[in-house]
C-alpha cells in the first residue's frame, strides 16, 4: 500500500476532476502489476495495473488507495475489471464518498466472492486525496495558500516591487507546488501589478497546463495581459460579477478566456465562498492561492485555507511595505485562524514552513 500511495502522489495536480489513485497487484509475494490514474483522470489506476499484470492478476491481491469505482462513466467500472481479471483479494485504503460509489464498489467485489479488506494506511490515503474528498464531500476544492514574504511578512515594497523577495531555490520549490495543484489562483491586484503567466515551469513537468484563475470582480484584466493572450494555450478563468461580465467580458472571451459569472458583488469572504463552490462545480480539487494580501485574507476569513506554504526571506522591508495579509478584522485572539506546522526546510538563505489548518 505504501508503494500504491507513492504512485498516487505522482498524479496530484494532473487527474482532476478524478482523484489520483495508485494500484499495486501482488501475487505470491511478487509485484506483477502497478498503475496510477493517468493525465485527465483516465485510464484509472486499476485499469493500468491490470493491463501491466495481464494473466498474472488471476488469484492475486490488488492494493488500491481508494475504493474502486462501480459506475459507468467515460470508462467501465474498475470493480468490474477486477472481477473479470480474477483477483482473489482487494485491499482498499479508504472508501470513495462519491454518491455513485460510496461502498458499492466494494460490495460488487464481495458479491463476486473476492476477499475485501479496508482501512490499511487510511489516514495517509485520506491526507493524500484531501482535495478530492473535500470536492466530493463539501463541494469545494482544497486550498493551499502560498506566500513569499520578508521576515516582517511583507510581499513587496511600498512601490510594489516584489521580484524577487526569495531566491532561486525557493522559487524552484514554488514550481513543485504548482505541479501538485490543479489550478493557480490570484486576485486582480496581483494580475494587474505583476502580469504573471501562472504556468508550471518545473523542469521535466509533462502534465497538462494548470488552470489559471483570477478573481476580478470589476473585470479589470487587460486583453493585452499574459494571461489573456495565452488563453488558447492554457485554461484561463476569470471569476467576476454578472454586471462586470456583461459590460467588459466580450474582449476577453474572444481571446479564449472563460469569463465566469459568480453572482453580484459581496463582502470579500462571502465572495470567496461562492468562488470556491464554483471552482469545485467545474471539477477542481486542489487550488494554489498565490496572491495577493487581500485575496489571502478573504479566504482565511472564509475558513477556506487548508494548508499554508510560507516562504520567508532573511530580510525586512518595514511597515511602509505591502503586507502579505490584508485585514482579518480580528478583535479577539480566540478568533484567529490556527495552524499546526507539518514541515520545514532551508532553501539557501530562505526558509519554507508548511502548515495544516487545525479544526
Number of helices: 12
Percent range for helical residues? Answer: 25-40%
Query: Which strand order spans the largest sheet, edge to edge or round the barrel?
Result: 11-10-9-8-12-6-13-16-15
Distance between the termini: 28 Å
Number of strands: 16
Briefly note the structural class of the backbone. Answer: alpha/beta
- Unreliable sequence segments: none
Globular, elongated, flat, extended or rod-shaped: what is the shape? globular
Radius of gyration: 22 Å
Instruction: Note the main sheet.
Output: 9 strands, mixed
User: Beta fraction of the residues?
Assistant: 15-25%
Give the topology string: H per helix, E per strand.
Answer: HEEHEHEHEHHEEHEHEHEHEHEHEEEE
User: What's the rounded overall pLDDT mean?
Assistant: 95
Give the secondary structure arrangement, pairings included.
Layout: H1 2-10, E1 22-27, E2 30-36, H2 45-53, E3 61-64, H3 78-85, E4 89-92, H4 104-111, E5 115-118, H5 122-128, H6 130-138, E6 142-149, E7 154-156, H7 168-179, E8 183-187, H8 188-194, E9 211-215, H9 226-229, E10 236-240, H10 242-254, E11 258-261, H11 268-281, E12 286-291, H12 293-301, E13 307-312, E14 322-323, E15 339-347, E16 350-357
Parallel strand pairs: 3-4, 4-5, 6-12, 6-13, 8-9, 8-12, 9-10, 10-11
Antiparallel strand pairs: 1-2, 1-3, 7-14, 13-16, 15-16
Task: State the gist of this model.
The chain has 359 residues and is an alpha/beta fold.
Amino acid at each position: 500500500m505504501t508503494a500504491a500511495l507513492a504512485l498516487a502522489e505522482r498524479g496530484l495536480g494532473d487527474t482532476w476532476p478524478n482523484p489520483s489513485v495508485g494500484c499495486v497487484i501482488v501475487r505470491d509475494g511478487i509485484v506483477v502489476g502497478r498503475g496510477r490514474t493517468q493525465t485527465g483522470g483516465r485510464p484509472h489506476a486499476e485499469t493500468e495495473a491490470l493491463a501491466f499484470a495481464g494473466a498474472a492478476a488471476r488469484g492475486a491481491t490488488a492494493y488500491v488507495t481508494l475504493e474502486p469505482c462501480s459506475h459507468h462513466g467515460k470508462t467501465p467500472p474498475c470493480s468490474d475489471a477486477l472481477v473479470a481479471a480474477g483477483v482473489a483479494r482487494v485491499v482498499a485504503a479508504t472508501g470513495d464518498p462519491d454518491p455513485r460509489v460510496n461502498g458499492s464498489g466494494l460490495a460488487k467485489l464481495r458479491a463476486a466472492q473476492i476477499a475485501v479488506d479496508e482501512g490499511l494506511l487510511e489516514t495517509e490515503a485520506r491526507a493524500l486525496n484531501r482535495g478530492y474528498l473535500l470536492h466530493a464531500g463539501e463541494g469545494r476544492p482544497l486550498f493551499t495558500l502560498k506566500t513569499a514574504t520578508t521576515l516582517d511578512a511583507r510581499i513587496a515594497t511600498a512601490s510594489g516591487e516584489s521580484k524577487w523577495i526569495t531566491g532561486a531555490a525557493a522559487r524552484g520549490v514554488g514550481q513543485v507546488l504548482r505541479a501538485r495543484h490543479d489550478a493557480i489562483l490570484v486576485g486582480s491586484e496581483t494580475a494587474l501589478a505583476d502580469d504573471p503567466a501562472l504556468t508550471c515551469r518545473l523542469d521535466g513537468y509533462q502534465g497538462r497546463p494548470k488552470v489559471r484563475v483570477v478573481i476580478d470582480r470589476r473585470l479589470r484584466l487587460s486583453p493585452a495581459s499574459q494571461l489573456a493572450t495565452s488563453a488558447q494555450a492554457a485554461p484561463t478563468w476569470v471569476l467576476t460579477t454578472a454586471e462586470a461580465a456583461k459590460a467588459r467580458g466580450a474582449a476577453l472571451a474572444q481571446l479564449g478566456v472563460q469569463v465566469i459569472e459568480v453572482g453580484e458583488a459581496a463582502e470579500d469572504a462571502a465572495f470567496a465562498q461562492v468562488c470556491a463552490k464554483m471552482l469545485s462545480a467545474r471539477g477542481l480539487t486542489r487550488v494554489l492561492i498565490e496572491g495577493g494580501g487581500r485575496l489571502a485574507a478573504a479566504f482565511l476569513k472564509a475558513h477556506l485555507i487548508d494548508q499554508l506554504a510560507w516562504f520567508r526571506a532573511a530580510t525586512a522591508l518595514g511597515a511602509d511595505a505591502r503586507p502579505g495579509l490584508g485585514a482579518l478584522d480580528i478583535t479577539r485572539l480566540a478568533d484567529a485562524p490556527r495552524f499546526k506546522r507539518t514541515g520545514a526546510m532551508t532553501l539557501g538563505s530562505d526558509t519554507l514552513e508548511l502548515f495544516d489548518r487545525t479544526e
